[in-house]
Amino acid sequence: MGLSEFDLIQQYFSQIGDSPSVRVAVGDDAAVLQLPEGHVQLISVDAAVSGVHFLPNTSADIIAYRAIMAAASDLAAMGAKPEGMLLALTLPNAEGEWLASFAEGARRASLVTTMPLIGGDTTRGSLCVTVTVVGSAPVDRYLTRSGARPGDRLCVSGTLGDAAAGLSLLENTDVSLSAKHAAFLQQRFTQPTARLALGQTLNALATSAIDVSDGLLADAGHLARASDVRLVIHRDAIPVSTALQAHPDQTQVQEWVLRGGDDYELLFTLPPEAPLPNDCTEIGLVSEGEGVRCDGAEHMTGYDHFGH
Amino acid sequence: MGLSEFDLIQQYFSQIGDSPSVRVAVGDDAAVLQLPEGHVQLISVDAAVSGVHFLPNTSADIIAYRAIMAAASDLAAMGAKPEGMLLALTLPNAEGEWLASFAEGARRASLVTTMPLIGGDTTRGSLCVTVTVVGSAPVDRYLTRSGARPGDRLCVSGTLGDAAAGLSLLENTDVSLSAKHAAFLQQRFTQPTARLALGQTLNALATSAIDVSDGLLADAGHLARASDVRLVIHRDAIPVSTALQAHPDQTQVQEWVLRGGDDYELLFTLPPEAPLPNDCTEIGLVSEGEGVRCDGAEHMTGYDHFGH
């Protein structure tokens, strides 16, 4: 890390969030965290690339906010408490206004997720934002994809398909939809919320969980495979927002609901007796077998960064 | 993470290294580590970009090996024991031969550093490798840049300038140097070694440490600033390899020794009474003041990803 680069990071990213777990944050060779005794640490990394995860003309604060939320969503899916994040930024040039906006988005996401920025790296290159998130959970009390058991209920938080519809509305504004509904859907894409509080609640209730980032059918497929079970989804039970119900193209809406990514809701399995948390919906069940069945059809596909 | 992408990672990166600390590795939403009680965790992230950190025609196994070693070097500089790594790969396309070679380089680096691969992400985009490393250290027993005190001795491991000379030889082979010396210098660039064992030894001896990744003067500047001290370097004391001593352009060699990056040696400060570890050299001292002085001249500059 050279001097100007060091100055850049110091200037824009020196004090984003704080936490009693952080012993050393940005500015040394590595960050130092001290987690509570009897806890495991959970770590995930997510890259956000221009043209893949966001439109090329996206403002820097939205790029930062979305990238951090997408990464934090992995902690939510594991039922972890967020402890900190590291940002690796690859940029074509170091432009002050862009960096200030990016830092502002990072600061907002840090506040919402309660994750301080504890480290980072900046390099010249094509725009790419890589977010590493660190969380904690009591030993033997975190969620995985592999705990679903036949007889469990399949549930999802919030509503699905909104973010895909919102992205579509950003690319094509010529759709007959009220400004209020359009703004809601666009915001679901540009400013998603990682379900961190729900994840920590599910920690004590659910048998398995995954976040819906690739689309319901794809992520259900990952869960089914990891748990070695079959998931049966009732299409009519899938929660759809009022805004999406008002969309003029309901054929497309059905696709978004089943295959749209980036909603960052949680898909999880509950034992028969467990209470359903607020703002969650039962959409199917876990049975013996493999794969994902939705209203009589088998599904195993979803978003693939290299497949198309 | 889509299905083909999932398959790719499973195929090439599913079993790289192992450690008793790893509870959940590649394949879930986050990795889970359980560190020994009474330990802190250390985390660092480093991006390696084509054309900045490696030549565009570099083979994939070298790209992986160097990127992982560069990241591991940050753990060495903190005196941490390596616990695991996460790889975020952005690739223009998913080509099996390239991925197999990359995985082989990652496997070699994992063996040498004893860091299992515990997570990752792959995305389509310009080639960029982001490595997150996680280590552990006993509470209150890790090295920082900020502990140097006036009266300490300034020391460095190994020899300096080799990697910069090696990179130059890769770009221009028309230099009068024996094949053996040329191979040594090139290997110092393509296959650096993170000084992990030395870092853990220094943990009990040194007052501060940093790895030499930006060049001696630049990294000494970071150490001086963080510790709020002045570093005085005796140029003649800086260790230079036999191969570099045989290089025909000794004016250039002096530049490489002072400003060449990528050697990944450790620069550290020892109290007066502490023993000097093997393969280390005393090159100066810590005094009151600020900045870096080398043979009468003040220096504060080094490699800067955006400055040139």
Describe what this molecule looks like in 3D.
The structure is a homodimer of 308-residue chains. Chain A is α+β, with helices and mostly antiparallel strands and 308 residues long. Chain A folds into 2 domains: 3-138, 60s Ribosomal Protein L30, Chain: A (2-Layer Sandwich); 153-299, Phosphoribosyl-aminoimidazole Synthetase, Chain A, domain 2, CATH 3.90.650. Helix content of chain A is 33%, strand content 27%. Chain A contains 9 helices and 13 strands. Chain A has helices at residues 3-13, 60-77, 96-113, 162-171, 179-190, 196-202, 216-227, 242-245, 250-259, and strands spanning 22-24, 31-33, 39-49, 81-91, 117-124, 128-138, 153-157, 208-212, 230-233, 265-270, 280-287, 291-294, 297-299. A 7-stranded mixed beta sheet of chain A has the order 8-10-7-11-9-12-13, sandwiched between helices. In chain A, strands 3-6-4-5 form a 4-stranded mixed beta sheet. A two-stranded antiparallel ribbon of chain A has the order 1-2. In chain A, a hairpin with a 2-residue loop joins strand 12 (291-294) and strand 13. In chain A, helix 2 packs parallel to helix 3 and helix 2 (60-77) runs parallel beside helix 6 (196-202). The longest helix of chain A is centred in the first third of the chain and has 18 residues, at 60-77. Chain A starts with a helix and ends in a 9-residue tail after the last strand. In chain A, 58% of the residues are buried. At the A-B interface, helix 1, strand 2, strand 3, helix 2 and strand 4 of A face helix 1, strand 2, strand 3, helix 2 and strand 4 of B. Strand 2 of chain A pairs antiparallel with strand 3 (39-49) of chain B.
